[in-house]
Amino acid sequence: MDLSSLDLRAIGAWFHNLLMGTGMSAMLVQFIESLVGALLLLIFGLTLVIFLIWLERKLAGRIQDRLGPNRVGPYGLMQTMADALKLLTKEDVTPFDADRVTYNLAPALAVFHVIMALAVIPFADQVIAADINVGVLYLMAVGAIGSMAALMAGWASNNKYALIGGFRVVAQLLSYEIPLVLAMLIPVLVTGTMRMNGLARAQGDYLGLGWFVWTLPLAFIIFFIASLAEVERAPFDLLEAESEIVAGYNIEYSGMKFAWFFLAFFMNSWVLAAIGATIFLGGWQGPFVDQIPALGVIYFFAKSLFLFVVQAWVRTTFPRLRIDQMMSFCWKFLVPMALVLFGFVAIILKLHLPSPWEGIILLLSNVAILLVGLSFLGRSQRKAVYASKRAFTPTIPRM
Amino acid sequence: MLQQYGLIGLLALIAIAFPFVTVGFTWLIRPKRPDPIKNSTYECGLETIGDTWVQFRAQYYLFALIFVVFDIEAMFLFPFAVAFNSVGLFAVIEAILFIVMLAMGLVYAWKKKAMEWQ
């Protein structure tokens, strides 16, 4: 069998020809193709999330020296299905003085924003639902709906814990959107395109050394930390800190509406991991991907699941931050570093250096900015420690 | 291009309708036994005191304000980044000046202690 014919694009072409063969008008064919594509994305997202929830629970179990789910099905694989069935049949309790419209709209919007983000993720070369020329900007616009949904849920529940969760949404999700967007801006600056497929294609040189994680490691670090905050994972899980505000903004939700928040959380983690894999880890790039395009799917899923696993690892390892630490880390460390990095990268690219040297200079400047930033951070930390020690030293009254 | 936006439009319709459809479906099979205690606000067993919808703290508002400035900055920088290869060194310096001006706003907020959590 010729492996090079193993291509997902061929399926799309085959489907197109099949529909054209029935003699329908071109408009109708386009409509049906779009509809099938959209439904496929939705089904893909929902099935993937079942696997992701199992994966994260199993991983968290192993890391915390437990077994994780192991009863329902082989290796506990059917556990998520059982949970979904349970949530389907649960009573849906609406608190009596909740703001009904907003309360019911919030879980739908939470799901809406992650499914919309799936549309611009390239699974392999040109296997992308909508390769629009404003891909990164679209992700940014769609991502903002997520913080809206969390704020709406917190506000509409008429619960003080939920409201505090909603306040923290404003503080955290909005603040960390800035370093996230600035970090995504830097690869766009290097490649000069906002197409997600174009960003992945631009990283094909030098057998994986052309990935932006090597030339722009600082941008990747900023992106990864900000994405941890955007998906509400520990150490940034103040929005749903169980020990402080019970469950945060989704406390009053039960049954299927809670299930939608839960699903949106896991899918959002994977979507951000997939964006990180596409922008910084080369997306579908890998060995022999030019000869066998279908390998791109495997590379892409390997990379995005790797980032997802690292997220889950961080979540199970680190303790929670305080809100003032979290906010000052964003505004006083991540944002200034991202801005300085943007300026440096813009100047270095305008020097028009020959190809490998440009990458090396970019790497060096990234490391230099990171080291300078870390030394500033360490100095301010030491100052804070001294100040707090001085504040607690008992003053001996003078005789 | 139009077909791709058509797909996004269809996906938007499906993605917003799907949660409502499933919630409607569960309405058919789930138990419905509301009672005043079950439907009361959940606060770990205590009855809730006072109004929930209080005023936001001004602290959050300050962060939202800085956010708007930087979000708009990012909006302006994306077109610049796409057109980067066709602009000269002068435009790069101009873009850096633009960032410096906004960074001055950040420094101002920093010095005014708008970012200290009180």
- Distance from first to last alpha carbon of chain B: 50 Å
- Radius of gyration of chain A over all CA atoms, rounded: 23 Å
**What's the alpha carbon Rg of chain B, rounded to whole Å?**
25 Å
| Spans where pLDDT lies below 50 across 5 or more residues of chain A | none
Structural class of chain A: mainly alpha
Number of helices of chain A: 14
Global geometry of chain A: globular
Mean pLDDT of chain B: 81
Keywords:
heterodimer, A: 399 residues, mainly alpha, 14 helices, 69% helix, 0% strand, globular, B: 118 residues, Methane Monooxygenase Hydroxylase, Chain G, domain 1, 3 helices
Polypeptide structure, described:
The complex is a heterodimer of chains A (399) and B (118). Chain A has 399 residues and is mainly alpha-helical. Chain A has 14 helices and no strands. Chain A is globular and about 100 Å long. Chain B has 118 residues and is an all-alpha fold. Chain B has one domain: Up-down Bundle (Methane Monooxygenase Hydroxylase, Chain G, domain 1). Chain B is 64% helix and 0% strand. Classes of the chains: A mainly alpha (399), B mainly alpha (118). The interface between A and B is large, with 81 and 69 residues.
